[in-house]
TrEMBL record:
Any GO molecular function: peptidase activity
UniProt cross-references to Pfam families, sorted A to Z: PrsW-protease
Keyword Transmembrane helix: yes
Protein name according to UniProt: PrsW family intramembrane metalloprotease
Keyword terms of this UniProt record: Membrane, Transmembrane, Transmembrane helix
Chain ranges passing through the membrane: 48-70, 77-97, 117-139, 151-171, 177-196
Amino acid sequence: MPKNALILSLLGGMFLSGWLSSFANTYIHDLLGVLFPDSAFLNAFESAIVAPLVEEPLKLLPLVFVLALIPVRKLKSLFLLGIASGLGFQMIEDIGYIRTDLPEGFDFTISRILERIISGIASHWTFSGLAVVGVYLLYRAYKGQKVGKKEGLIFLGLALGTHFLFNSPFVELETELPLAIPVVTAITLYGFYQAYRFVEKHNELMN
């Protein structure tokens, strides 16, 4: 696995995907505000619905350029490139949140940084790892190769679904035991582990 490919994917996730997603999310937010003003549903679920549909495809965009420059022949390599792009996106998003939080004071900013570190256990890097495997398997199915079609649907669905859950009001549910975030995190990591197992078993699938 060429290190250059990983570095380019990481940087692409940071600067290409991060910038485009920021622009697209802002544009869609403004558009929805005009089309559906004062919508309680959108106020609650806009981020959960829009972010996965915008960010997951854009996080895979750098891979198109990376693979054109540095082709890979192993499914594990593709998996790692997706993870790298997602990690780069996650890093630039965290920096953006820190900049936004700074005017609120030092204590608030530190608490938010710690919150982002904890949530980073299962975040964009896992979503992108799941998404890239899912998209590739569905692309193979489109080309007539049926091996992995079901898994492709599952992995892509998990990428979008877990991203939706993390951005939804469900993770803010207050219960006696704070279970919402741990449950969603566990679902995400379990799905990611299953994708990893599939990649390990079918590493030669791209040959």
